[in-house]
Amino acid sequence: MHNQANRLSFIGASLSLMATYVASATAIPLYGLYQSVDGLTYSDLALSSVVYFIGAVIALIIFGRLSNHFGRKPISILSVLLAGLSCLVFLNIHSAYPLLAGRFLQGLACGLASTALAAWVVDCADTVPRWIAPAVISCGPMTGLTIGGLGSGLLVEYGPIPRQLPFFIVIGLTIASIALLFQAKETMDRKNGALKSLKPSFSLPPISRKAYPIAACTFVATWALGGFFQAFGPAMAREQLHSTSAVAAAFVFASIMAPSSIGASLAGRYSAKTAQLAGMVLFTLFLGCVILSLNLGWLSTFLLASIFAGIAQGMVLTGSIRTMVSDIATEDRANVFAVIYATSYLGAAIPTLIAGRLSTSFSLLEISCGYGLLAIFASCVVVLSKVRNTSSMADSNTSLIK
Predict the structure, then answer these.
(1) In a domain, 332, yes or no
(2) Three-class SS of residue 268?
(3) Deepest in the core among 178, 316, 353, 356, taking most CB within 10 A?
(4) What stretch of H or E contains 256?
(5) How far is CA 43 from the centre of its chain?
(6) Do residues 296 and 249 lie in contact, with contact meaning Cβ atoms separated by under 8 Å?
(7) Average pLDDT of each block of 10 consecutive residues along the chain (402 residues)?
(8) Would residue 39 count as lying in a domain?
């Protein structure tokens, strides 16, 4: 009975985590429409992504530990409610201000989900193989973003009332998710100290602290590219790949997000550090192919390269998260996930803000080269760390032999 309750709670928390991110991607295929009909600029779209990331970071560093005090269930339900509320705001977008407000609410929702729901997933993961919970946490958001982007793109292109229908459907999805969460098993008892927990804290247990510097480089490099695709995916489809279709814009965005679940599955076959190293190097190589295909204007090659970069992204993220969350105590989980996702969101927000500023002076192709340099730097850090650890182990073995 205990295992059955945990299994159902695991499924409910996992699906709700994805649903929150479905909501956050639903507007992206509409960006082209917002530009052409409502006069929004590249700067407005980039700022909307930055506001989204800021909302997420605020939720992570200030409210990220509330689920340790109020329980996983109420904070998780609040995150899904905020996602639904953001969709209500998006029903009437005709200027930048409601777009920014809606994206901020989505950021808050995803930030809360990234701690409360992610911790709940791990709490209930004793009925599944060990690699599945890190895979859900690393790739659940990517999967949700993919479903939201692709589904919305298809509805915008072929459905009635394209500016409202995607959001009505997602509102229904959030209601269903809340119903699932009400049936799920609470795994954290209520305790005092909620107000004290609002003080930002970046403390990590020793295992996580040791793994964090290398993992942080991979989080920043991969999430930064995701932020670029969120802000400029429709523009890339239109300007570099010569397609004005909302579906093409959705596929551009989804091509980097959807395959991450494949990479997460592959990561489960290797040790955490091997998955981290191989994933980061492959991500960098395929990102180079993405940039090359952008330069040549080859849509099919671009999508193929993005798919392989997405697979590598899932592999490196799952490996990096495993290095930080393996064998940590239940009460440390929410805080560790807050640090992981705060790092990831800041890593996406800052480059996106810079890219938005540069978009008036540089082409999207030139801006994308900056993301390639960021990935190269992260790869060098991971490779050098591996070389240093191998050398240290060799020296230790030599000392033992002597």
Answers:
(1) yes
(2) coil
(3) 316
(4) helix 246-257
(5) 22
(6) no
(7) 74 92 90 84 83 88 85 93 95 90 94 88 80 80 85 87 93 95 85 80 82 94 88 74 73 81 85 92 95 85 91 92 83 80 85 83 86 95 86 54 52
(8) yes
**Whole-number pLDDT of residue 107:** 93
Specify the pLDDT at position 42. Answer: 77
CB contact at 8 A, 16 and 118: no
pLDDT at 400: 46
Contact 185, 71 (CB under 8 A): no
Entry field: residues in the chain: 402
Residue in the block written with tokens 């072929």: 158
Distance between CA atoms of 142 and 51, rounded to whole angstroms?
Answer: 19
**How far lies 209's CA from each of 205, 212, 314, 387, in Å?**
6, 5, 22, 20
Range of the domain at 89: 1-186
Asked whether residue 20 falls in the same domain as residue 89, the answer is yes
**Distance in Å from the first CA to the final CA of the chain:** 56
Tokens of 222: 């991969």
Helices (H), 326-363: 330-358
The domain total for the chain is: 2
Listed in sequence order, the residues at least 6 apart from 189 whose beta carbon sits closer than 8 Å to its beta carbon are 71
Same-domain status, 155 and 248: no
